[in-house]
Amino acid sequence: MGNIILTGDRPTGRLHIGHYVGSLKNRVRMQNEGDYDKMFVFIADAQALTDNFDNPEKVRENIKEVALDYLAVGLDPNKCTMFIQSMIPELTELTFYYMNLVTVARLHRNPTVKAEIEQKGFEESIPAGFFTYPVSQAADITGFKANLVPVGDDQLPMIEQAREIVRKFNNIYGETLVEPEAVLPSDEKCYRLVGIDGNAKMSKSLGNCIYLSDSEEEIKKKIFSMYTDPNHIKIEDPGKIEGNVVFTYLDVFCKEDSFEKFLPEYKNLDELKAHYQKGGLGDMKIKKFLNSIIQEELRPIRERREELAKDIDAVYDILRKGSIEARKEVVRTLNEVKRAMKINYFE
Ligand code: TRP
Q1: Which of 5, 91, 137 to probe ligand 1 with, by most ligand atoms within 8 A of CB?
Q2: Which of 26, 236, 248, 342 has the smallest number of CB atoms closer than 10 Å to its CB?
């Protein structure tokens, strides 16, 4: 059987360039390479509600935003099925059966959940829905028998937990489910993009993101406020590359022809870095260069997004049709699961 690709995002905010280099680009590449039988990209609203249950408006609003981001970066409804998680109730049913295959201790050990519990300050009052979302995520993946899951590296513990559930299920009930595999970007520098303030993570709550939908002005303002080397005060001062966000981003976004186009007095990034380290190269110049590169990359995405946003009904239509299509897959898997579990009484 050919590849089945599946991935998704929580609709808790617009998508940013961390999502873009960490996963979205990879998905579009896989979609366009076409080495798959089926590809699904979905908006995980039920998962988003596990820690936003008191803010349903936010989740609802961001379904639209994430869908626009998907389409704007080049995910194509003719090549991949886009859907909304809660439109497929069978996923919830699968989740309930998988709950039996996971211990509370194992969920506590999930590093991503652990970090989120700390970050959200849940302490002892963790909502059960939130605590068990890795099980629901396993249902998302296995419901489609997906074998390839393009995600950011923060999702690796989720994939690992899904694999364990699959093995346990197949062991007890017989070979039914497919073990998924995470697909990370080929370039490790893209795994996790730092925030514009130098924080290890780009995140909405930290206010250090560049969004795919940001205007040209917003992007420029953000790039010019980027954290560089606080000891590089005068242009003549030697500057540090390590931890300097402008160089971190240049490492990720610089293309072969970027110098020729925007900074022809340098041959390549090594030469630029060497000059900065030696002294005599100002922050303004490197920021201007980075700004040109990022603007070039984001302009077509933003323009497509603005175009798409004019007809939101068409976007909802894609999600509605996709949800109907996608549901058929999970219905089929659920039937197999119930047969394997011997709860197919009237068959
Ligand atoms: N956990 C992912 C996120 O934080 C969203 C998600 C839910 C997902 N189910 C998934 C990703 C299944 C890949 C596969 O955005």
Answers
A1: 137
A2: 342
Confidence of residue 120 (pLDDT cuts 50, 70, 90): confident
Q: How far does residue 6's CA lie from ligand 1's centre (Å)?
A: 9
Superfamily per CATH, domain 216-305:
Tyrosyl-Transfer RNA Synthetase (1.10.240.10)
Residue 24 alpha carbon to ligand 1 centre in Å = 13
pLDDT for the residue 331:
98
Give residue ranges with CB within 6 A of ligand 1.
6-10, 44, 47, 137, 140-141, 149, 151, 155, 158
CA distance 66 to 319: 11
| Residue matched to tokens 């998302």 | 140
Return the beta strands (E) in the chain as ranges: 4-9, 38-43, 81-84, 148-150, 181-183
From CA 99, how far away is CA 323, in angstroms rounded? 24
Question: How is residue 243 written in tokens?
Answer: 């931890």
Best residue among 20, 47, 94, 145 to mutate for probing ligand 1's pocket (most ligand atoms within 8 Å of CB) is 47
Query: To which CATH superfamily is domain 4-192+312-340 assigned?
Result: HUPs (3.40.50.620)
pLDDT of res. 123: 78
Closest atom, ligand 1, to C-alpha of 137:
9
Residue 180, sorted as left (phi over 0), alpha (psi -120 to 50) or beta, turns out to be beta
CA–CA–CA angle 154, 134, 213 (5° rounding):
50
